[in-house]
Known about the structure:
It is an enzyme of class 2 (transferase). This protein is an alpha/beta fold. It contains 6 helices and 11 strands. The longest helix is centred in the last third of the chain and has 21 residues, at about 190-210. The protein is elongated.
Amino acid sequence: MLRLAIQKSGRLSDDSLNLIRECGISFINSSLKLKTACTNFPLEILFLRDDDIPGYVADGVADIGIVGQNVLVEEGKQELTVEALGFSKCRLSLAVPKSADYNSISDLNGKNIATSYPNLLQAFLDEQGVQAHIHTISGSVEIAPSIGLAEAICDIVSSGSTLISNGLKEVERVFKSEAVLIANQELPQEKREILEKLLFRVHAVQRARK
Ligand code: PRT
Ligand code: ZN
């Protein structure tokens, strides 16, 4: 039996479960359960916080998982990637107050930037030759400028409406992300064979969606 870790509740959950269902795999989904065994395919589903999924897959607690590339790369686990899944598309962007005079990335030198993605941001700033102070906070990043915590933020953007409603403007794109399927790198042969069967179905679903 292959163990798949997916997000318990959040922006990845519905599309992850729909993909499994479209693969013709049946399971009983109770919002109270932390795991469920599929009834017609050798798959068990674990429901976890998205941030815990790369670690669990790397450690072999789960064999495979579905997570955003933003979380995977932030945690330094991109080597687990099997393939991109085409949903939960978003970007990690830098934003400043709408009224700020912003001309180029060098305007961020010496500034305070609030983010939940310090590693992705640091790599981008290094690549751009910018030195700034990164303040790592776990949520409500978009209010940091209005409470005086930072002059800029680096956060996930999808439609852009959260930035606008907080009086911010997007100035740089740091990282492009979508959901990816990840796998433990030392799967035993029989689990690899189940993964191959699952991937065969995933590819058929993706072809049918096009
Ligand atoms: O509880 P748990 O830790 O599992 O969930 P979470 O709250 O950490 O994650 P969740 O469910 O918010 O997001 C899961 C994944 O979905 C992210 O890691 C991204 O890969 C992807 N994703 C896609 C997004 C968005 N779109 C998104 N719009 N993640 C977050 N947002 C947030 C963003 O942080 C900002 O607050 O939505 C707001 C911006 O949205 P727009 O449309 O107003 O621009
Ligand atoms: Zn999370």
